[in-house]
Amino acid sequence: MRVKISKAVNTELEVYKALQGEDITPQILAIVNNEGKRVGFVSPDLKHEGARVMNPADEEDRDACLEVLNEMHKKGWVHEDPHSDNFLILDRGILSRKVYVIDFETAQRATPSLIEDDVDKFQFFWEQRAYG
Q1: Is 60 in contact with 95 (CB distance < 8 Å)?
Q2: Which residue, 40, 43, 104, 41, is CA-closest to 76?
Q3: For residues 56 and 112, is the Cβ–Cβ distance under 8 A?
Q4: How much is the pTM?
Q5: What is the pLDDT of residues 47-68, one digit of tens each?
Q6: For residues 65 and 60, what is the distance between their CA atoms, to the nearest angstrom?
Q7: Would you kindly state where each structural domain of the chain is located, as residue ranges?
Q8: What's the rounded Cα separation, in Å, for the pair 18 and 6?
Q9: In Å, how far are 20, 44, 99, 116 from 26, measured between CA atoms?
Q10: What SUPFAM superfamilies does the annotation carry (predicted)?
């Protein structure tokens, strides 16, 4: 039996594959699907005791997430849904923090206008969560 994989899952797989080893995404060992819909992924980074999503009220989190989003753009991709739940932060003590971008169902190949839109969306989501 062959399982049909949705366009969103294909996009997710394509982006994770393109960005693996670039220190932008967590290491992905497997993506878990149910009837062609992504329901999760297996990553050793998710077991990390300090793993969390971005805190919208924390400007250091915002700056670190924007930096990794910009790195994604430099590698030729835009996220299209860059809100706080799509950034995984690993706190490794007071001086060490690692930020990853996750959830690429709506990602696209980057163009200058899409990059600008992606950054605007990030700023909008951050302001809505931090001040809204």
Answers
A1: no
A2: 104
A3: no
A4: 0.82
A5: 666 778 888 778 888 999 999 9
A6: 9
A7: 7-131
A8: 18
A9: 8, 8, 9, 24
A10: Protein kinase-like (PK-like)
Q: What is the identity of the amino acid at 93? A: G
Measured distance CA(91)–CA(34) in Å, rounded: 31
Q: Given a cut of 80, is residue 118 above it in pLDDT?
A: yes
Amino acid letter, 99:
V
Long-range contacts of residues 44-49, Cβ cutoff 8 Å, at least 24 apart: 45/88, 45/90, 45/100, 46/88, 48/90, 48/92
Tokens of 13: 């797989």
- CATH topology classification for 7-131: Transferase(Phosphotransferase); domain 1 (1.10.510)
Buried b (16+ CB within 10 A) or exposed e, 61-76: bbebbbebbebbbeee
Inter-residue contact 61 to 89 (CB < 8 Å): yes
